[in-house]
Amino acid sequence: MKKQNGWLMGILALAVLCLHYMFESNMTSEALEPQKVGSDVLNIAHRGASGYAPEHTMIAYQIADEMEADFLEIDVHMTSDGELVAMHDDDIARTTDGEGFIQEMTYEEINKLDAGSWFNEAYPNHSDPRYQQVSVPKLTDILDYFGTSTKYYIEIKNAASAGQLLQTLEAYQLIEEEAVILQSFDSKVLQQVYEQYPTIPLIQLLGKNKMLFANYKKIRKYAVGVGLPYQKLNQRLIRHLHGNGLLVHTYTVNDEADMKRLIEWGIDGIFTDYPDRLYHIKENRMNVLRPFN
Ligand code: G3P
Ligand code: CA
User: Fold this and answer.
1) Residue 126 a catalytic site member
2) Is ligand 1 within 6 A of the CB of residue 88?
3) What does the angle CA 101 – CA 73 – CA 172 come to, to the nearest 5 degrees?
4) Domains along the chain?
5) Span 266-284, pLDDT tens digits
């Protein structure tokens, strides 16, 4: 029995060592400089100011802009008639009064939906009559309204929308204006975008499981950084990724203590539903630093 336990412990230690080696070997030895996008920690309004207003609505983006967010985060999907709309889920049931999949509906059908009343029911503390009957915005509605007065952090939720998205960004000249970052969990679509538009900053999103086994060297070939869940981050990993020339953005951080800790660790960008909280932390930090600048 003792002998068996010994073997078991040995195998376990070996497995941990292999994992560690796999992780280390994914990291390059020479230190690369991450390509900074912006001078300070990016304040990325997650689905707009979605802590205060219905996510992915014009009013959530307007509030985020008033709260000095650096980027508006927009998840895009494509309708059956080729319109790009802002919505997180591919199914409309959670954030509208309708049912069905976006890719099976025309924009005219989606435009009739109420994309705000659900928020008043779900968050009575933040409910507001202005949220009733608000509609699902098209990407072009958002770009027409804000133009280049703000920047856009757009997530490609399905590869089918990538071509239309790039055409739209070209038409609005947002690529040469460096007013856009593109992100996705889909590494293939990001690599395709990189081949066509190597100057667009790309962020490879990774979930809790994938981040352990990710090939960061390979990601660095097409992306300027990674988007990781903050719960799995630590200072050592951030340093490692910086050492590999990768920016580190993290989602979705709403607690001020978490924001401060991540900033101390050298995070480059934070997705938050409360851009005002991050704005004030950055302002206070700048006030402390200013006398020394
Ligand atoms: O895009 C960053 C973060 O938003 C990823 O998660 O599910 O909120 O789109 P999700
Ligand atoms: Ca997203």
Assistant:
1) no
2) yes
3) 90
4) 35-90+137-289 (3.20.20.190)
5) 999 999 999 999 999 999 8
